[in-house]
Write a structure and sequence with these properties.
The complex is a heterodimer of chains A (469) and B (222). Chain A is of the alpha+beta class and 469 residues long. Chain A is built from nine helices and seven strands. Chain A is rod-shaped and about 170 Å long. The chains are: A alpha+beta (469), B alpha/beta (222).
Chain lengths: 469, 222
């Protein structure tokens, strides 16, 4: 819009500027004709005077001056010839030329007569014939002057008119164009604003309870549709995240409520009447046990949040995985012997370098091993194996435990997913172990796969990228 | 009054069981749905406290299975889930009451007592037969304005007899409602407790209240 206005103004400016130049040129031509006419008159007048003076005192300086004025006259005459454009001008110049030749002839004759001593005849020519010729010539110059004046006047008026007409011709269409473009622009903006308003109203009204709402993408211009769809995709992601957070916080609530209920209930029951010291001690022990459970839940949640949202603070180093895993295996041995589970392993005798955080990686493997131990009955076995597949390190932890049903398989890595064995002793799990293991694997650009069917044990495979130096 | 507590968390089950036993209830604990259904089938419970989050199933399906098996004990759902939808679902499929964790132990006791009172035409917490009175709230037993001191088991036995006054109560009934799973019904423990009770509520009083019915059991009547 601004560009269009600027362009129109620029066009008008350039055109008038051009007009002005043409006008000035014409004026300048006419003015030079006028000037030529004036100079002609002046030179003519001087010539006549100088000859008369020569007759009076016979000083040859007058003849020199006369010759000088004669060349001035001739040069102005040629300028006037060039400047004469209209036929009447040209005619007058022609007349002036002829008359001047006659006048000059007379003058020349008068000088000759005077120089030869025939003074009275020379005077006659000077006063009569030459005078008449001069008069006629002077008149012609005057006419020429007048013609030029009137031409200038006329062209001034007509040029002024032309400029006005040109201005109107340029300005009117420009105004119409500006008007049209402006109204188009206005309508377009209004339409765009109307759709934007629609989108804005929907987005403004979206809150936690209506995250399912979407911006209407029907009947929209391509660009607006693109915008609306982008907003919808963003809303989709937001809704999913909020859904996850909602579920997650309700799980946290539930997980923390149980130990709280136990601490409260145990204490209330203990205080209902006077008891033996042993009873109070038991109540306090239970409370500490449950408080520890809450601490573990909170610590795990903080750890998960750190892995999810602040992973750059976790240090990584490159190290040989084989001796690291041998240490884990040694410690796993103590876990399984309590439950009479047979632990076997196959680890290659080579060096495999990975990059990662040893503390967190050992937690990953311990969580998986603990999980295997939990679901494997006494007398069962757990196998650990390490092997390299191209640039990926694979660690499998397989057990002969109860296995996982097809329905539960996709959910085992979910936070607070419990799948307890039917025995009361197993209730110390808080359902975050596998989720933490997965988050650690993902932090190391790896992942964990699980294969299982009920009654046939489970195979967890940890894949980690091998460090490329 | 015999209660089945279905709760998988050991510490939770432990304090509820102890607390209820101190209030003269006989309590069995089932740590999962399967055990709960089994115990409810073989025993007659007056009330079942049911957790929703169970290792093998959930409390809703246990509740439904119990009602499908025609078990008409009161069911009180006790859970950390406080969503109104869950409460409605629980009550709709057969639960009689719903309490969310964490809870006040006194409230649990009050709700249990309130549920158990519903069985009786007389909603008063004071049971009466002749000049014998038993207050279920204070656990005080009074005869002819004389307070009688009873042990927890003796109280439970008398309460059961008074709740079923003028009816024949068999030894099996008594073992089912007054003792928990750990009780061996083949011994003569019930007869021993009946004798102790007779000593306390009949000795020194004119009227005999506990009547032995040879071969069947006992009856409490004027």
């Amino acid at each position: 819009m601004v560009f269009l206005c600027a362009f129109t103004v620029f066009l008008a400016f350039v055109t008038t500027r051009n007009m002005q130049r043409v006008f000035l040129n014409t004026m300048r031509d006419n003015v030079s004709s006028l000037k030529a006419a004036e100079e002609l008159e002046l030179a003519l007048l001087s010539q006549k005077g100088f000859l008369a003076n020569y007759f009076l005192d016979q000083d040859p300086v007058w003849i020199e001056n006369l010759e000088e004025k004669k060349s001035t006259f001739e040069s102005w005459l040629s300028k006037a010839t060039d400047a004469a454009l209209t036929p009447p001008e040209k005619d007058i110049i022609e007349d002036i030329k002829i008359l001047y030749r006659t006048y000059e002839g007379e003058r020349y004759r008068a000088k000759q007569l005077y120089d030869s001593g025939n003074i009275s005849e020379a005077k006659n020519i000077l006063l009569k014939d030459m005078w008449e010729a001069f008069e006629a010539l002077y008149q012609k110059c005057e006419d020429y002057l007048r013609i030029n004046e009137s031409i200038i006047e006329k062209s001034e008026v007509s040029l002024q008119k032309k400029v006005v007409v040109m201005m109107i011709l340029i300005t009117l269409p420009a105004l119409v164009i500006i008007g049209l473009v402006g109204s188009m622009f206005f309508l377009l903006t209004k339409r765009i604003l109307a759709t934007v308003e629609g989108i804005a109203v929907t987005t403004r009204n979206i809150n936690l309870k209506s995250l399912g709402d979407r911006v209407d993408t029907e009947n929209l211009e391509q660009e607006m549709e693109y915008l609306a769809k982008s907003i919808n995709i963003m809303l989709e992601r937001l809704e999913r995240s909020f859904e996850y957070i909602k579920e997650f916080s309700s799980s946290i609530g539930h997980e923390l409520k149980s130990p709280l209920a136990i601490i409260k209930g145990e204490s209330e029951v203990a205080l209902r009447k006077e008891r033996k010291a042993e009873d109070y001690r038991r109540a306090l022990r239970v409370n500490i046990e449950e408080a520890n459970r809450m601490i573990r839940i909170v610590e795990d949640l903080v750890f998960l949040a750190k892995l999810d949202y602040n992973p750059e603070n976790i240090q990584k180093e490159s190290f040989d995985f084989i001796p690291f895993f041998a240490d884990i295996e040694k410690r796993a041995q103590t876990l399984v012997t309590q439950k009479e589970i047979n632990l076997t392993s196959s680890v290659p005798e080579m060096s495999i370098t990975i990059e990662g955080n040893k503390l967190h990686l050992s937690r990953l493997f311990f969580n998986l091993i603990q999980n295997a131990v939990k679901f494997t009955p006494s007398g069962g076995s757990i196998n650990l194996s390490v092997h390299q597949e191209r640039d990926v390190l694979k660690v499998t932890i397989s057990d002969t435990g109860t296995g996982i049903s097809e329905e539960d398989l996709p959910r085992v890595f979910q936070r607070f997913f419990h799948k307890e064995k039917a025995q009361p002793e197993s209730s110390d799990s808080i359902g975050l172990g596998l989720s933490i293991a997965m988050s650690i694997a993902e932090f190391h650009n790896g992942n964990i796969e699980v294969k299982s069917s009920p009654g046939e044990g489970a195979i967890f495979t940890v894949c980690l990228p091998i460090y490329q130096a | 009054m015999r209660i089945l507590l279905v709760e998988d968390q050991k510490n939770m089950a432990s304090f509820i069981k102890r607390g209820l036993e101190e209030e003269r209830y006989a309590v069995d604990v089932a740590p999962n749905g399967e055990k709960a259904l089994f115990l409810a089938e073989i025993n007659t419970y007056d009330l079942i406290i049911l957790d929703i989050m169970l290792p093998d199933t959930n409390g809703f399906s246990v509740c439904k299975d119990l009602r499908d098996s025609k078990i008409d004990a009161f069911i009180l759902m006790l859970t950390a889930r406080d969503d109104v939808k869950d409460k409605i679902l629980g009550l709709k499929i057969g639960a009689d009451d719903y309490l969310t964790k964490p809870f006040d132990f006194d409230e649990l006791l009050a709700r249990i007592a309130a549920l158990l009172r519903r069985r009786r035409p007389d909603k008063s917490p004071v049971l009466k037969i002749a000049d014998l009175e038993l207050n279920q709230l204070t656990h005080k037993v009074v005869r002819e304005n004389q307070e009688i001191s009873l042990t927890a088991k003796e109280y439970s036995l008398l309460e059961y007899l008074m709740l079923n006054a003028n009816q024949v109560v068999t030894r099996t009934h008594i073992s089912e409602h007054v003792w928990n799973e750990g009780f061996d019904s083949l011994t003569n423990v019930i007869d021993v407790f009946i004798n102790r009770l007779r000593n306390k509520i009949e000795r020194g009083f004119e009227k005999k209240l506990i009547h032995s019915l040879r071969g069947t059991g006992y009856m409490l009547k004027e």
